[in-house]
Automatic annotation (TrEMBL):
Pfam families: TctC. Residues 1-29 form the signal peptide. InterPro entries: BUG, Bug_dom1. Coiled coil: none annotated. The keyword Signal applies. CDD domains: PBP2_Bug_TTT (cd07012). Belongs to the UPF0065 (bug) family. This is Protein BugT. Keywords: Signal.
Amino acid sequence: MAFPFRSSLLAAACVSGAAALVPATAAMAATAAAADAYPSRPIRLIVAYPTGGISDTVARALGERLSAQMGTSVVVENKAGAGGSIGIDAVAKAAPDGYTLGFAATSPLTLNPHVGRVNYDPQKDVAPVMSVMYSPVLVVGTSAFSGKSFADVVGQASAKPGSVRWATSGLGTVGHVVLEQVRQKSKADIVLIPYKGAGQQMNDALGGQFEVMSTNASPVLSQHMQAGRLRALAVGAPRRLESLPAVPTLAELGYPKANLSSTFGVFAPGKTPAAIINRLNAELNKALAEPEVHERLLKGGEVPTGGTPAQFAKAIREESAENARIVKEAGIKAD
């Protein structure tokens, strides 16, 4: 038996579906064509921190390699402030065409939204491209600290409450989270001294304005430690650093929740086509493998990473969930 009515509906549905498929296919073809032609003009790489720091140095080294590999200029632009959130916000609001990228720590996506307000959706507005490195967090003693080890930090603060001042580069930073985890576990009365950036923190550390600080690894820090002006007491890292084999990790010292490091990577606007993300990821992995770039990271105390966009995105989700728990438990708030 024939069902002319149903057949007519089916035919209409097929025609309608075919008509709907045309613009979708055209859009896919246009995206593929754009990816094939990419890049056809200069790429802007926004560094979410000031000039002269390790993130700026690494970003510029990657930019040089990308320029050589991709046949276009890469213009590095520094947009510092709010713990990296200003730079990431600029990336989030840029056109999703692969011509604006960002270099930053993951904290503007995984930590800052939990301690204060940000003007972007960390899950939708920013696309992870590749993890570049992790930067260990070092706990360092200054000339004002009379102790010799990390155990002396806790011991002195417990015996004489308020006698140990611990400086961080800002409220709600990874270094601040490290301190809060140490205070929570040890119950020691350690005084928080929050700065508004690592520059003044370092200057005051050299002047002995406080006993201890937590800060990311950098060539400048390494120079001061080698000269004996500062002394490494502990490190937040998955394992001991090759450059500081005698310095224990915070996990080894009994503070696994404080054993934190900062992961840095490259990001794109949230709706950037997957084909462009994958092209950039391949080029960045190639650049990171270059001996000159690799050695520059190691000399600064950083650890090269690399990997796929999916791996980076997964790590960011997990880090954000863990930071949300830590911030809630410690009651951490930004300015």
